[in-house]
Design goal:
This protein is an alpha/beta fold. It is built from 11 helices and 17 strands. Strand 3 and strand 4 form a beta hairpin.
Length: 333
């Protein structure tokens, strides 16, 4: 072990060891009882270590290894998370290889979230409706490996709104976008929040109508609408919850906003940007200046990861530890 005299660290109470420990980006740091010195104890990969992967292309930007390796260490679990850059056309071979290797699970990201649906044994109701899978579990019984697919973005989004739930049930909602993210959050809202109305604000009206027609099958009494950005001011002003499900404003394009008319925001609204980097997008800054409450995508990122973690390990992710490590990491970017 080596001494770490100065480090940015996050404290947690070890579930397994029942001793005072700290976690530092993939390493467990113990405080010795006698000296109080900070020392690094490197986690070891053993013959019993369970492997979890991320399949996508590219994957170098992903925060998933940081999230899950921090969580595995904090929970005292002998798991390791690695990325795998799988080019389009190679997904079938990659899935078969993971099954043969006996991995515990995998995340799936672009461009494979739709294609993987046809390569696995069973898909959850959420993933089937959204048409996208982001989490795989591999269950081996004898010579047979059963691969299950889920979409934890739904639970991640729903959990991210826990603190706001009482004010959002049966409310009015506007969702900016008509892509996969917009469809996922709209599905989650219709399923768990029973909005009075839900408006998709889109650039391509035909794409928006296709998404709305699918969502309408579970809308119940919710009034569904599709409007273009040019026609959406009334919808934005009248919505209790406004969600940006587009990439507009994502780093490095932090000067961009999906909604130019900031005066449409006001107190009594929650403006939610699914983007988490930068921490405060231009959209959120302008909405906050007009008196609206704001929320970025960090909580959704954490809670979707927690849902995947539970599927692989059958244990709860140490969310507070992961949140602090992520915040420290993003602050250094």
């Amino acid at each position: 072990m080596s001494v770490l005299p100065h480090a940015s660290i996050s404290e947690y109470e070890s579930k397994r060891a029942r001793q005072r420990c700290r976690y530092y980006f993939g390493r467990v740091v113990q405080l010795t009882n006698k000296t109080g010195r900070r020392v690094i104890q490197y986690r070891q990969i053993t013959g019993s270590t369970r492997l979890v992967t991320l399949l996508g292309y590219p994957v170098t930007h992903s925060l998933s290894p940081l999230i899950h390796n921090a969580a595995f260490a904090a929970a005292g679990l002998d798991y390791a998370y690695v990325t795998a850059a799988v080019e389009p056309g190679n997904l079938k071979q990659a899935i078969e290889g993971l099954a043969a290797l006996g991995v515990a699970g995998s995340n799936v990201t672009v461009p494979h979230k739709q294609e993987v649906h046809d390569l696995i044994d069973v898909t959850s109701e959420d993933a089937r409706f959204i048409g996208a899978v982001n989490t795989l579990t591999f269950d081996r019984s004898g010579d047979r490996c059963r691969i299950s697919g889920d979409n934890t973005d739904i639970e991640g989004f729903t959990r991210s709104l826990d603190l706001y739930r009482p004010n959002l049930i049966n409310s009015t909602v506007a969702v900016l976008g008509a892509g996969g993210a917009a469809r996922a959050v709209s599905y989650a809202l219709l399923k768990d929040f029973q909005p009075e109305s839900l408006t998709l604000v889109v650039r391509d009206i035909q794409k928006g109508l296709v998404a709305a027609n699918v969502l309408d099958t579970i809308a119940g009494d919710c009034q569904m609408a599709v409007v273009t950005f040019a026609e959406a001011s009334d919808s934005i002003r009248s919505s209790r919850l406004v969600i940006n499900a587009t990439p507009a404003g994502m780093a490095p394009n932090a000067d961009v906003t999906p909604w130019e008319t900031a005066t449409d925001f006001h107190s009594g609204q929650l403006v939610y940007d699914l983007i988490y980097a930068p921490e405060k997008t231009r959209l959120l800054a302008e909405a906050e200046n007009m008196g609206a409450e704001t929320l970025n995508g960090l909580e959704m990122l954490i809670w979707q990861a927690a849902a995947s973690f539970k599927l692989w390990t059958n244990e709860e992710m140490p969310v507070d530890t992961v949140r602090q490590i992520l915040q420290e990491h993003l602050a250094k970017r």
